[in-house]
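S1.2 Input.
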Amino acid sequence: MLNADQVSHIISLLKPQVSKEEIEQVEIMLSTPVVSGDVQSMAFYHADVIKDVLTERVRQHNKFGYQNRPPFEWFLILSEEVGEVAKECVEMQFNDASHPHSNPAAYRKELVEVAAVALAALQNFDMRASSHAKPIGL
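S1.3 Output.
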């Protein structure tokens, strides 16, 4: 789970954009572990998932740098990542758990990468659409 400083930082980024009620829901979401079978806590995403996606987003940024791409290019990148999820899904479906290609951790890793690429595409789209940036190819 995220520590209190991490939760506070995320909340500070959200404050200008969301209502007090939404901020309270995010605080709960970031600090409530998901317990198997607990419908109330499962209504919120597990903080570790959010942390993993944001960590992957930072890793991608460090590896590839700033990327200003038109939506079609993001679609191609995201499709390639979804293909990797599909590959891992097929490996798990058609190989038993002891098979070396059956790797649930790899499946999860690829899902995190898809979410991080989708986040990057959304961030870039919003940046390109804002009045603070000159849109290219929109």
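S1.4 Remarks. The chain has six helices and no strands.
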